[in-house]
Amino acid sequence: IDPSLVDVNVHPAKREIRFRDEARIRKFVVQSLLRRNRELSGKTEMECPTIEFEKDPSSERMVPSIDPQALEMYGLDQSPKTSPSSSLELVRSMESNDHRAKDAAVAKDLATRKTVGGRGDGEAQWRFLDRPYGDLAIFSTPQGIVGMQTRAAYERVRFEQLEDALEKKASSNSQSLLLSESLELDGIDRENLEAGLDDLRDLGFALEEFGRNFFRLEGCPSWMDKEHAGKFLKDFLEVAREEGGGIRTEAFAKEALVRLSSAPNSTPQGFSDDEVIRLAQQLLSCRNPYTCPKGKPTYFEIPFRDFETRFKRKL
User: How many domains does one find in the chain?
Assistant: First the structure.
């Protein structure tokens, strides 16, 4: 199962986990148990139809013959020109078509399902309710109430956007700064910047040499806030200096982003309701939506049964 579909942080002692799509997991378990019970039960009496056999030309073995109606059901041609050379191949073809149809149906279901929406959006799994205090955003779900820390969610989304850019999974488009920013460097920082300049440009940074030990920052990646671009580069060079030589762009860039997110005012202040909904949607699309880059939780869910325990009655 995809790890992103399982939340292991719902219980402080790790005694419980939560699946994002509990209904599908429950259906799978119930169907598996019922099928196994039927297999083990000796009381079930089933009428077995008469099976006709035919000789498989490829293996020279007797195999069950294929029902012509089954061929029509799966869209297979029964003519000698296009039909497989053996019954076993026909069975494999039908099973393959069946699996492809099921996979396509699941993919379509996931693509059309809306994960996050507003208060009145009945189709959304998470419905935004309010931002009662600071960076806290409240959502309702079919299982309970979710509290999301918007700052932590923003850090996780930006961190994975950086990872995608480093792995060339996403196009590293650049955005121009309203006013270019000058970087005055000493000899060590200049050497480190020149060593990683090509990689930084691939990430979307627009850097031009502007005199001895001076560089001009004219653009940054489209996913980065413009006011943070200069601070990110300074943190990047600080990490490189601490490591004492040898540019490892990926490791240094990740550490620089973590330091940037730890600084005061590193995230936008005053998210609008629409921005919170969009941020939650981006968070749930992350590979690890459960923690920020520093390992702290991005959200947690309080199940309705916990409210019933507190109230000592059904809701």
Answer: 3
- Domain check: are 140 and 281 in the same one? yes
Rg over alpha carbons for the chain, rounded to the nearest Å, is: 29
CATH number of the domain where residue 231 is located: 3.30.1370.100
Show the CA angle centred on residue 159, arms to residues 157 and 165, nearest 5°.
105
Domain that holds residue 212: 174-221+226-262
The verdict on 189 and 233 lying in the same domain is yes
213 lies in the same domain as 77: no
- Nearest C-alpha neighbor of 83 from the set 101, 65, 102: 65
Model-level pTM?
0.55
Q: Please give the helix or strand (H or E) that residue 2 lies within, else none.
A: none
First to last CA, the chain: 32
Q: Say whether both 255 and 285 belong to one domain.
A: no
pLDDT tens track, the chain, 315 positions: 777 778 877 777 777 887 777 777 878 888 888 888 888 876 555 555 666 777 777 666 677 777 776 666 656 555 544 444 455 555 556 556 665 665 555 444 444 456 888 888 878 889 999 999 888 999 999 899 999 999 899 889 988 888 888 777 555 678 888 888 888 888 888 888 888 888 888 888 898 888 778 898 999 888 888 888 888 888 888 888 888 767 888 888 888 888 877 666 555 566 788 889 999 999 999 989 999 988 899 999 999 999 999 999 988
Instruction: Please give the structure tokens belonging to residue 191.
Output: 């050497």
User: Tokens at residue 239, please?
Assistant: 């990490």
Distance set, CA 93 to CA 60, 67, 76, 85, 101 (Å): 20, 14, 9, 12, 12
